[in-house]
């Protein structure tokens, strides 16, 4: 059994998206003690920013082929996904959207022959969990309702384009733990964190059970 795990937070100490994913990974490994976790850490090992541009140029100008390294990278990223039985994506919100490294990873993968836009959804129906963290709050009635562009975009790509059977575990208001101006929101932040970990454990177990199918 192979769990593909992608992380994107630029920190390890105190990272909420990573902590939620750790909870889910623990639940998955408890069901699959000999399971392999294949890690892609975009927060600490950024992808080369020019690979997608070179591959995109190649399409509009075949006279300027992309370097072999760009093709090799794309093959490697695709192979990581094709080898997995289950998926765990841990993504923080940066600037009301996904981290640029996640956008880079998605843009590259969308060019992959099998997994990408022109492929035939080889990941369709496989179990996946997305853990999300946000410093602020974006729920109904909050001042920034509608500003969360990360969640709908990730759902579109992971569930609709890749066809993954996607669940979400999330925690928001994480800034309330240290920002004095958000001290009045600390209770809500604690509640969100607790629910996030409960959901991560539940869905971690769920993707572990579905990995067997
Ligand atoms: C560069 C940067 C940009 C951020 N932008 C936002 C934002 O637009 N909205 C928000 O609610 N939180 C924002 N945050 C806060 C993070 O979403 C929050 O700290 C979250 O917990 C980060 O995930 P992590 O705990 O896994 O590192 C930002 C943090 C950083 C470092």
From TrEMBL:
Q: What is this protein called?
A: FMN dependent NADH:quinone oxidoreductase
Q: Copy out the cofactor comment.
A: Binds 1 FMN per subunit.
Report the top EC class in one word.
oxidoreductase
SUPFAM superfamilies per the record? Answer: Flavoproteins
Q: Which organism is it from?
A: Streptomyces lanatus
The chain's coiled-coil residues are: none
Q: Coding gene?
A: azoR
| Residues annotated as binding FMN | 9, 15-17, 133-136
Q: Out of the domains of life, which is the source?
A: Bacteria
Keyword terms, alphabetized: Flavoprotein, FMN, NAD, Oxidoreductase
Query: Where is the Flavodoxin-like fold domain positioned along the sequence?
Result: 1-159
Answer whether the UniProt record assigns the keyword Oxidoreductase to this protein.
yes
Q: What is its EC number?
A: 1.6.5.-, 1.7.1.17
* Catalysed conversion reaction: N,N-dimethyl-1,4-phenylenediamine + anthranilate + 2 NAD(+) = 2-(4-dimethylaminophenyl)diazenylbenzoate + 2 NADH + 2 H(+); 2 a quinone + NADH + H(+) = 2 a 1,4-benzosemiquinone + NAD(+)
Identify its protein family.
Belongs to the azoreductase type 1 family.
What is the required cofactor set for this protein?
FMN
Any Pfam family from its record, for instance, is Flavodoxin_2
Q: What subunit structure does UniProt give?
A: Homodimer.
**What does it do?**
Also exhibits azoreductase activity. Catalyzes the reductive cleavage of the azo bond in aromatic azo compounds to the corresponding amines.
């Amino acid at each position: 059994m192979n769990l593909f795990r992608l992380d994107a937070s630029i920190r390890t100490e105190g990272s909420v998206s990573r902590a939620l994913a750790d909870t889910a990974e623990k639940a998955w490994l408890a069901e699959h003690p000999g399971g392999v976790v294949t890690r892609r850490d975009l927060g600490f090992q950024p992808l080369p920013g020019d690979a997608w541009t070179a591959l995109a140029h190649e399409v509009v100008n075949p006279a300027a082929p992309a370097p072999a390294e760009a093709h090799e990278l794309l093959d490697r990223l695709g192979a990581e996904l094709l080898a997995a039985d289950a998926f765990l994506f841990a993504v923080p919100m940066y600037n009301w959207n996904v981290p640029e490294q996640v956008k880079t990873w998605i843009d590259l993968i969308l060019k992959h022959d099998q997994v990408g836009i022109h492929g035939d959804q080889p990941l369709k129906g496989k179990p996946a969990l997305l853990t999300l963290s946000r410093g602020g709050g974006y729920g109904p009635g909050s001042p920034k309702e509608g500003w969360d562009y990360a969640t709908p975009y990730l759902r579109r790509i992971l569930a609709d384009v890749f066809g993954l059977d996607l669940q979400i575990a999330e925690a928001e208001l994480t800034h309330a733990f240290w920002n004095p101006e958000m001290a009045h929101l600390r209770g809500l932040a604690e509640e969100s964190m607790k629910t996030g970990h409960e959901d991560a454990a539940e869905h971690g177990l769920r993707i572990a059970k579905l990995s067997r199918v």
